[in-house]
Amino acid sequence: MNFAEFGGPDVLQLIDAEEPHAGPGQIRIAVRAAGVNPVDWRIREGQVLGAHPIELPAGVGLDASGVVDEVGEGVEGVEVGDHVFGEGSSTYAEFAVLSAWARMPEGLTFEEAAGYPSVVETALRIIREVGVQPGQTLLVSGASGGVGSAVLQIARDRGITVIGTAGAANQDYLRSLGALAATYGEGWVERVRQIGHVDAALDLAGSGVIRELVELTGDPQKVISIADLAAPELGVRFSGVAGSVPEALAEAADLISRGKLHIPVEKSYTLAEASAAHIDSQAGHTRGRRVMVV
Fold first, then answer.
1. Contact predicate 114/291, CB 8 Å
2. NADP as a keyword (predicted)?
3. Torsion angle of alpha carbons 153, 130, 234, 209, nearest 10°?
């Protein structure tokens, strides 16, 4: 799957491409599933070239799970045939090269595993960057998607109280992940205030709530956005550059193995349905993750 120009979902094309090969420090996998992330369509639109510089035509996708079939020079601890999940490039494909990976935890399906890499890295990074501590309360705006699902569970595992906002249909889902839930819409700030004091906040949906999050925390330094490119205009940090993906994958595998992290797959798509996957991702209202099955 690739695109030759920036634009809408219609620029995506399913093509026959040359097989990639693992370079030094990389592995190649036979892809079984690929994660569908908002960053995928943001890159396709040309939005985030600073963090992910690309040359056109370009492939699509960063996350994947699959079976190792090629090991690059200098790589140790992984062998052909191992089941792994991780992050690389052009993962909406039959074969993909990964630059960071971990063994899939026991009992995880390929579809489930593909939904974790970027999501968990992002969740761990923004929890760290916003500076919320055990015993404090974190507000998560747009909490029912992949990153939100990870943030809620990781924060709760660290002894942080979490208030999550989402649509009415996802209130029980947020509660099932240990969050105190509030609905979007008129009056949502007051509904959050009735739940309790907010020490820090995360904007995951980019729904124009930065001013309100600053108001609730009392400090723009206590708010992080991963979805509103205009956030810095209000003194709020936009976090878009990944930290250590190998460390995040190791922590994800540990959390999953301990039963502390589970992100459901809301919907799966075939490669031929990539445009539909991007349309659905951009529309939001996800509960958990969307993945591409190869």
1. yes
2. yes
3. 10
Whole-angstrom Cα distance, residue 231 to residue 211?
Answer: 9
Read off the tokens for 28: 């190649």
Question: Which helix (H) or strand (E) element contains residue 36?
Answer: strand 27-36
pLDDT tens column, 166-225: 999 999 999 999 999 999 889 999 999 999 999 999 999 888 999 999 999 999 999 999
Q: Are 198 and 9 in contact (CB under 8 A)?
A: no
Q: What is the mean pLDDT of the chain?
A: 93
CA nearest 137: which of 74, 65, 240, 216?
216
Distance CA 175, CA 122 (A): 22
Query: Which class for 134: exposed (0-12), middle (13-18), buried (19 or more C-beta within 10 A)?
Result: exposed
| CA–CA separation, 280 and 28 (whole Å) | 29
165: β partners: 141, 182
pLDDT in tens, 21-59: 999 999 999 999 999 988 898 889 988 655 567 889 999
